Amino acid sequence: MKKPIIENYIKIFNFLYNFLFKVLYLKLFYRRFILLSLDILIIFFSLLIIDFSFKYNFRLINDLFIFLFPISIIFYSITGQYKSITRYISSLNIYTILVRNFILLIIFFIINKLFYLSNLLNFNIIVLLWIIINFFMVNSRIYIKDFISYLNATVKKDTSNVAIYGVGRSGAQLASSLSLNSKYKIKFFIDDDSELSKRRMLGLPIYPLKKINDFKNQIDTVLFAIHNINKKRKLEIFNDLQSKSIKVLQVPSIEKLESGDERIDTLRPIAIEDILSREISINKEKSFINCINGSVVCVTGAGGSIGSELCTQIINLNPKLLILLEWNEHNLYKIKNKLLNKKIDLKIKPILGNACDKNLLEIIFEKYNVNTVFHAAAHKHVTIVEENPIEGIYNNIFSTLEICELAYKSEVESLIYISTDKAVRPTNLMGATKRLSEIIVKYYANEIKKNQLNNKKFSIVRFGNVLGSSGSVVPLFKKQIKNGGPVTVTDEAVVRYFMTIPEAVELVLEAANLSKGGEVFLLDMGEPVKILELAKQMIKLSGLKVKDENNLDGDIEIIFTGLKPGEKLFEELIIDAKSEKTKNPLIFKANEKGLEKELLLENLQLLKLHVEKRDIKKSIKIISNLVQEWQKSTYYQTLE
What we know:
Layout: H1 2-24, H2 28-53, H3 59-78, H4 91-115, H5 123-155, E1 160-165, H6 169-178, E2 184-190, E3 200-201, E4 204-207, H7 212-215, E5 221-224, H8 231-243, E6 247-250, H9 254-259, E7 268-269, H10 272-276, E8 296-300, H11 305-314, E9 321-326, H12 329-342, E10 348-352, H13 358-368, E11 372-375, H14 382-387, H15 389-409, E12 414-420, H16 429-450, E13 457-463, E14 465-467, H17 473-482, E15 487-489, E16 495-496, E17 498-500, H18 501-514, E18 520-523, E19 529-530, H19 531-541, E20 546-547, E21 556-560, E22 580-581, E23 587-590, H20 597-612, H21 616-626, H22 634-639
Parallel strand pairs: 1-2, 1-5, 2-4, 5-6, 8-9, 8-11, 9-10, 11-12, 12-13, 13-18, 14-17, 15-21, 20-21
Antiparallel strand pairs: 3-4, 6-7, 16-19, 18-23, 22-23
Helix pairs in contact: 2-3, 2-5, 4-5, 11-18, 13-15, 15-16, 20-21
């Protein structure tokens, strides 16, 4: 007996489900007509409730509904009652309904007084009627919205059950945004604050992280929505969730949200940059007035990883004109469009050309009256320069020489050379070319002091590996992981210092502001990172497992390839001087020795002749004489 009854209930439910589902896909006119009919029905039942409650024996309905019916239709149509999309109804829409019904009933109350429609209608009845109508009308919209969400969830098979980590502002915004997105269904919140345990937010429970094991079967992903948390704690949380095979996505940074670059519901995996980067505090009072504000600034290598970030941050410091010098057409196109997308009225001048072209540099410096130069153009890949020595020597050394010479003779007031830790006791040609470039900058800085040119200052900023730059190991690891491995690490003991590109550039700009001329600024690179551990962490961040002898079922294998020619186990920042503190705790400075004028310039002239003849042997010999601490590889030793 019970079975037929249950089957009948199921049939009724399926009929209603299919009927309502079809209603959702009716034409707009029919859907609005259904909502209007629903509202008129609500008004009718509201009058009926009052009529019944006060025992008016249907007099209130008989006297008023025939007039209230057409007035309501006209008023709701004129005031846009049905223009809002019900599935996206918000608190603002609800307030609008309350106000609209209040105005409607006040208008009707005035009409009743003017035309004596009913002596039963008084102000108390109007207030009561307003409360009852709003109760049913608002709840009807909420139920419709929830039902539409339910239908979408049942139709979409790829809906993901998620938990939001963080009950602050970002967590609340994310939850509100995702409530409109049928791709995600929020099951609960997670937070470290024990006082919030057993409480609710937006109707959903809040659990501490330590209890995630009890609920992990309910969710597929945790959405990380906390910004004010240190990197160490963030890594601990990630490792905890990853060990339980829970996928983690995070919301964009506050900076990207405030700038409008990304929305709160733009979710992405946690990147290695998010964990290794540091929160740094830069003094931006008066925004580098002497260096950038109101000045004509030229960035060489403007399309590279460091150069493009320099341009991105410089445009926020009010330069008079920003000149982008880049030899790669595609990179120049990308940085130009990136800048214009941020600020349409920006004064920029993209120039396609080589930083070694003396005639081009002369035209740029004179035509635009350049005040500040950031020299970031260089070949930075160690192995590429090792395999193409003449090009590496020509590009790295002679671009610096031409720029320094012209900047010294022109109206340029400030020159900042972007160097690398590979210039310190170099073991490869790329590092040797960067060291010789430093010596060139130092020579001209000394000439400025010697000739008392107080309006000029040349300085060097030296730092280590930058996460995500073209020469960094991180993009290589990302590609290898994406391709299914293996990930190649040169040596188990290799360590490197890392900082993010925005972090490095902010410190470069701060160093430029601190410069008085001749300094080598050294950026605090934080704690050293073992490349092997970096590789393992990146595999985990990708949601995969390391395959090794302890875990043969892992996803990505790590193999050791041996140190490449000219590669060190660790890097240094200081050559032969002690570093001094500056006003910024993350920036140090050193005053290192240069070379005598005759020794430097005569050798550079000879070097240029040998490079033009593509004579590697003689070119290497001259660089060895100028950079005596260069620890040459076996290949270059055989050339001498």
